[in-house]
Amino acid sequence: MKNGQVELKDVVSLCKRRGFIFQDSEIYGGIGSVWDYGPLGVELKINVKKQWWKSMVYDRSDVEGLDAAILMNPETWKASGHVGSFQDMLSDCMGCKKRFRIDHLKGKDCPECGGSLTPPKGFNLMFKTRLGSVEDDAQEIYLRPETAQGIFVNFENILNSSRQKPPFGVAQIGKSFRNEITTGNFTFRSREFEQMELEFFVTPGEDEKWYDYWVSERLNWYLSLGIRKENLRIREHAKEELAHYAKKCHDIEFLFAMGWSEIEGIANRTDYDLKKHAELSGKSLQYFDSASGEGYIPYVIEPSGGIDRAALAFFVDAYRTETVRDRKRTYLSFDNRLAPIKVAILPLLRTNAEIVEKALKVRDDLRGDYRVVYDDTASIGRLYRRQDEIGTPYCVTVDVDSLSDGKVTVRDRDTMKQDRIDIAQLKTFITEKLVLC
Ligand code: GAP
Questions:
Q1: Distance between Cα 260 and ligand 1 center (Å)
Q2: Which atom, in ligand 1's list, is nearest to the CA of 262?
Q3: Helices 307-318/8-18 angle, 10° precision
Q4: Of all protein residues, whose CA lies closest to atom 16 belonging to ligand 1?
Q5: Distances in Å between the alpha carbon of 333 and those of 285, 321, 391, 394, 429?
Q6: pLDDT tens string 195-231
Q7: Ligand 1 centre from 178 Cα, in Å?
Q8: Whose CA is nearest to atom 15 of ligand 1?
């Protein structure tokens, strides 16, 4: 534990052992800062995305969804400023040859060997690729470094095809790519990651009000899904930290073992992006307000979160250990909505065919709306520990008595309290406890 949090090396180990996250292409030695989500990790991520989509789209009537492509016309990135400004300033050590980000350096010499550093050089973080099959004709394009631009270039399409007018937003979840220089801290800084972004278009002059609204909405979202208050904070960007498009930005930070780190940023992007796209594309990209008879380019408030970072924060915050009857118990106290597996069905005696048959029937009757698993590969104590460690909120045990009284034992992960429930009532009992959306 560090900063009261589980250390990332222990998270990495649990994630690999239990099937949350693997190193990408591991059999070939992996590839730097690219990760694969295993059977449990994919469920966790799906659940995080579901909750975000619910709060951003289904619970509101002023937000539309979008799924824009990763590949975009390269003019997009000229207009957005990413070709010119999306770069880290780097210096190489002339002695040990290591490379450093200027903003991470304290002195003017190499922090590793004390050698002299080269003058800083800009390094663009966008991945380049080529469009078309013939090398000579190929057009150089980029993998998107943020999902936001897919929303800006579709602004007119969405205005024309929906009934929205400012204030309204467009929500999108999708992959982004950055050729990060300083990596590490597990999935925290990956080269391929997923973002959940909302671009909220407002009338200029109302931007400050909406900005404050979104900072508080987004903080509450993490709290409502169980992250403890003391592990979250809001930090305002100093002027020199602001991205090239932002007038103001607050980060939502989580206290990881490595210290407070950004999991989401809320920025006031003003009319920067739409204006630049209007200039370069020649389209007007204005909203025409029929009431005033005037057109204007809306301002944009952008809550932009990373799914990988959110999932990591939910995981770290849920990680608990305690001693029960002289034995260490590790469990993940996920909110039920985020838990990868909701219910595990465990037969007390795997050698008893009747118990096994009944347990499988309980599993089949319960599954369909959420992930239910059956496990009979160890003793009941070990099976409980395994489910605790992956954060399964309920274990249902089928025993000899179940064959005569038609009841099963439901064990709560956090309290370890056990209830005896009629099998006929089980689905209702569990569904009420899960409070799924
Ligand atoms: N459209 C605004 C934007 O992209 P950002 O602060 O660069 O802003 C937003 O990124 C969020 O995306 C971050 O708060 C973080 O959660 C996630 N993110 C950014 N770079 C990441 C990386 N290399 N690995 C994992 N997540 C990343």
A1: 15
A2: 14
A3: 100
A4: 306
A5: 47, 10, 6, 11, 20
A6: 999 999 999 999 999 999 999 999 999 999 999 999 9
A7: 9
A8: 306
Task: Say if ligand 1 is within 6 A of residue 24 CB.
Answer: no
Give the pair of three-digit tokens for residue 21: 């996250």
Residue 332 belongs to a domain: no
Task: Report the distance separating Cα 51 and Cα 96, nearest Å.
Answer: 47
Does any domain span residue 35?
yes
User: What is the number of structural domains in the chain?
Assistant: 2
pLDDT in tens, 116-147: 999 998 889 999 999 987 776 778 999 999 99
Q: Which domain holds residue 44?
A: 8-68+149-315
| Tens of pLDDT, residues 268-306 | 999 999 999 999 999 999 999 999 999 999 999 999 999
What is the spatial distance between Cα 202 and Cα 274, in angstroms, rounded to a whole number? Answer: 12
How many angstroms separate the alpha carbon of residue 23 from the centre of ligand 1? Answer: 20
- Does residue 245 sit in the same domain as residue 280? yes
379 in a structural domain: yes
Residues 224 and 351 in one domain: no
Residue 305 CA to ligand 1 centre (angstroms): 6
What CATH number does the domain containing 49 carry? 3.30.930.10
- Does 211 fall in a domain? yes
Using a 10 angstrom Cβ sphere, with 0-12 exposed, 13-18 middle and 19 or more buried, the burial of residue 322 is exposed
309/347 same-domain check:
no
Q: Domain containing 352 — which CATH number?
A: 3.40.50.800
Residue 421 CA to ligand 1 center (angstroms) comes to: 45
List residues bridging with 201 in a β-sheet. Answer: 168, 300
Q: Are residues 399 and 350 in the same domain?
A: yes
**153 and 54 co-located in one domain:** yes
- My answer on whether 193 and 251 are in the same domain is yes
Mutate which of 170, 309, 314 for ligand 1 pocket (most atoms within 8 A of beta carbon): 309
Q: Is the CB of 304 under 6 A from ligand 1?
A: yes
Contacting residues for 175 by C-beta, under 8 A, at least 6 apart: 70, 144, 147, 192, 193, 194, 195
Indicate whether 309 and 346 sit together in one domain. Answer: no
> Would the CB of 262 count as within 6 Å of ligand 1?
yes
Higher-confidence residue of 133 and 233: namely 233
Dist. CA 306 → ligand 1 center (Å): 6
Same domain, 300 and 161: yes
Which token pair is 136? 């000579």
